[in-house]
Amino acid sequence: MKLKRKIYVSNSVPYFYPPKNDKARPSFIQYAINKAKNIDFSRTGLDYFIVATRNFSEKNRFIRKRKLNSHRALAMRVIVQAMLYHYNMLSKLVQASIEQLSDECRLSTISSAGNKSITRASRLITDFMEPIGLIKCEKKWDRVLGHYMPKLITLTPLFFLILDIKMERLENARYQRLGWINKGLIEKGSKPITLDEACQRCKDQQIRNMIKYRLDQHNLKLKVNRAKKLVSLNEVEAKQKILRNLISRYSVIELTVMGFSGLKKQVNIEYFFLKKLFFNDQ
Questions:
Q1: pTM value?
Q2: Per the record's keyword annotation, is Kinase included, yes or no (predicted)?
Q3: Quick one: which of 151, 153, 183, 223 has the fewest CB in 10 Å?
Q4: Buried b vs exposed e over 195-233: b needs ≥16 C-beta within 10 Å?
Q5: E strand or H helix at 36
């Protein structure tokens, strides 16, 4: 009797689902994505080397060569499409986090406890694509929240070489994009910018957007935690706690202008907002 081979991944045939209601991508990006769809990465001859250690001793360090298995090759095909979709031609950065790429490629899994895992995508990127030189990852420290931001992913020339895309075509697309930006700047009465300046501006904007998003998510988490504590109380106790918080937040003049009815209305609004936030998080 022939035994069936065990499938050890949750989604053996991943597929890239672009974000809904997103703008049409530039023609070069569409061209590159179509090239990626038709490449079997398990047959491109890609190998990678793992530096392994025994007993953490430098003397016993050895190099082990491994081939790209079929499951990882399929995951790589869709990850490459997602990276190209979010690729900024000017900054050469992928404008998406590893978690977002994993979600859009259906590579993320949810445990029975409700915890999300993006291991399949993160290992593909950090243990394979980065070591062989397809991408470069850069970590930046978030001084506001006190830990690292999601990695900034840069696509290298080798990435496009694997897809059989000439660098001249990419450079032409970059300068075409720059010309479109400079046209808009000139119409507004501003000076045109160089390719390096455009690259730096795009990178800085991406970092600012990342910080803002993370800060918004952090503040939302704080509100959800506060909502959980308030919902555990009865309505009277919860509203009294909100009232004390509002009194400490506003000045005497603001409270006088607001009046008793205005303050009561504000308490009710915040109570029902936090209650709704709690139930939406369930």
A1: 0.75
A2: no
A3: 183
A4: eeebbeebbeebeeebbeebeeeeeeeeeeebbeebbee
A5: helix 27-37
Asked if 173 contacts 181 with a C-beta cutoff of 8 angstroms, the reply is no
pLDDT, block means (10 residues), the chain with 282 residues: 56 85 86 89 60 47 63 88 94 92 90 83 88 88 73 92 91 92 90 91 87 81 81 82 84 82 85 78 62
- Rounded Cα gap, residues 118 and 99, in angstroms: 6
Report the alpha-carbon distance of residue 87 to residue 107 in Å, rounded.
19
- Read off the pLDDT of residues 182-197 as tens digits, 9 standing for 90 and up: 999 899 888 999 999 9
Asked if 267 and 242 touch (Cβ cutoff 8 Å), the reply is yes
Q: Which amino acid is at 65?
A: K
Q: Provide the residue ranges of all domains of the chain, joining segments of one domain with +.
A: 27-193, 225-281
Provide the sign of the torsion angle of the four alpha carbons 146, 154, 83, 12, taken in this order. negative
Q: What angle do CA 11, 13, 19 make, to 5 degrees?
A: 85
Residue pair 14/105 in contact by the 8 Å Cβ criterion: yes
Amino acid 88: pLDDT: 93
Task: Specify burial of residue 143 (Cβ count, 10 A radius: 0-12, 13-18, 19+).
Answer: exposed
- The length of the chain is 282
Write down the residue that tokens 């979709």 correspond to: 85
Q: Percent helix, strand, coil in the chain (nearest 5)?
A: 55, 10, 35
> What are φ and ψ of residue 15, in 5° steps?
-145, 140
Distances (CA, A) of 277 to 227, 245, 270, 280: 7, 18, 10, 5
Q: Cα separation of 14 and 109, whole Å?
A: 12
* 3 state DSSP class of 61: coil
